[in-house]
Amino acid sequence: MLILTNPNQTPSKDKYNKLIKMTAGNVELTDEVLYCVGYDIFCSNIVALKDIESKQETIQELKAKVTELSDELEQKSEKLGEITTYYVTALDEIDELQKENAELKRKLSLKEQK
Question: Which of 46, 73, 87, 102 has the largest CB neighbor count within 10 A?
Answer without folding.
Answer: 46
